[in-house]
Amino acid sequence: MYKWLSVLSMVVAAQAAAEPVIIPAGEYKPAVLLDETVEVVVMPAFKLDAAPVTYAQYLEFVSENEKWQRDNIAAIFHDGNYLKSWPGNEELPAGFESKAVTQVSWFAARAYCDAQSGRLPTLDEWEYASNYYLQQQNLSDKEYAQMLFARNSNPTAYSKQDVDANIEHLEYMHNRVNEWVEDYQLLLTNGDNNDLLAGSCGDSARFMADFGDASYATFFRYQSRSNYRPQSTTSTLGFRCAYDMEK
Amino acid sequence: MKNLIFALSVMLLGSGVAVAQDHSQHNHHDHKNHTTFKAEPVNKEHSIYHLDGEWQAHTGESLTLANFQGQPVVISMIYGSCTTACPVLVNDARRIFEALPEAYKQEVKLVMVSFDEDRDTPAALAEYAKKYNLGDDVWTFLHGDDNNIRALATLLGVRYRKRSDGDFDHSNLVTVLDVHGRVVERVEGLNRPVEDAVNALVKIIDENHLLHH
């Protein structure tokens, strides 16, 4: 009996740590050009979590890393609202196990991925994976734009939908939460004080590579990402981790 | 426009004045020069020494940033193969140091952190330090991995981006940290007046009675 229980728990544990998805090498045309001389970026293969990190997975991380628990996190790493909805350091809000974790700062997201021997995806990796996802799902530019605007019309409702942490293909890129990327700061806005590539609205629009059906939706997405600070812990911002391919 | 900028650059270089590389006004098609990113605002209440990553000094020694705790620090981020803004940033740190009252100098550390994990090995940084004739007791040049570099830059409010040619676009920022690693003064831009940084350092040393030790 005990033997069977332990086997069962091993199966459950194996499921909790679902394999990341391989994003094959290829080329991608950034929607917003950070470097006008580089219109096509050559991307090596890498691995990406199929789904955003869930509350249950994040709980496991903070249980093993006390300094990232709600009451222990260093003040410099968050804006005061880190895991604010959690009733305790190791206690999830009721019913949130399978939702994408939010209220996590950039620093916290990085620490989580580091603990999984991963890292946050770069902006290029995330956007490239998004293109790959849209192709896999056979979504037209219009459908993608509709998906995005639907979420942005009520982001809190979307962020509270469950995610399947055991899914085997890339999912939830645009219909759960916004996601941290490693170098999101490249498109930070400075209010009216717009310097080159700082990501003011005007800047992003000027740097857009083309203006198809998907363009405005993508522009909108870049802009909302650009409003974060590394300490931001909003209730609609989560993350997933990337991993290098084994050498 | 390009020619005008080029001519201005030559004039400024010729007169020994650092070119601040402020491209905020120029047209976006000229990417031959590096872009200067404006620095981000930062949290000044808390210590950056919470970052616990490991770094290698140009002397070969391994350390964490918390090693600098207990004395004021002048910190900036550069890369070794940068021939425009970076030597000016190094010199700006030196100018701050040299403007200190003599007795205060030994209480201050100057820390230059490289953006360039690949090229700026500790050995390459040692060469760099030697070229600038900077004593090891005052200067520390740090090599780290991309992960630690990104985290430190973020806390200091230094924006940077690795370009496809291997060089970096970055903010030009010299920061003064107090004995706890909190940001107390930031000098943004190149070849700026040093008074505020010097006054901040003197104040930290006085308030912590470091001269009596």
From TrEMBL, chain B:
Superkingdom of the organism of origin = Bacteria
Positions that bind Cu cation: 82, 86, 170
Instruction: Tell me where the signal peptide lies.
Output: 1-20
Q: What InterPro entries does the annotation carry?
A: SCO1/SenC (IPR003782), Thioredoxin-like_sf (IPR036249)
Q: What keywords are annotated for this sequence in UniProt?
A: Copper, Disulfide bond, Metal-binding, Signal
Any stretches that span the bilayer, and where are they? none
GO MF, one annotated term = metal ion binding
Report disulfide bridges, numbered on this chain.
82-86
Q: Which family does it belong to?
A: Belongs to the SCO1/2 family.
Q: What is this protein called?
A: SCO family protein
Natural source organism: Pseudidiomarina andamanensis
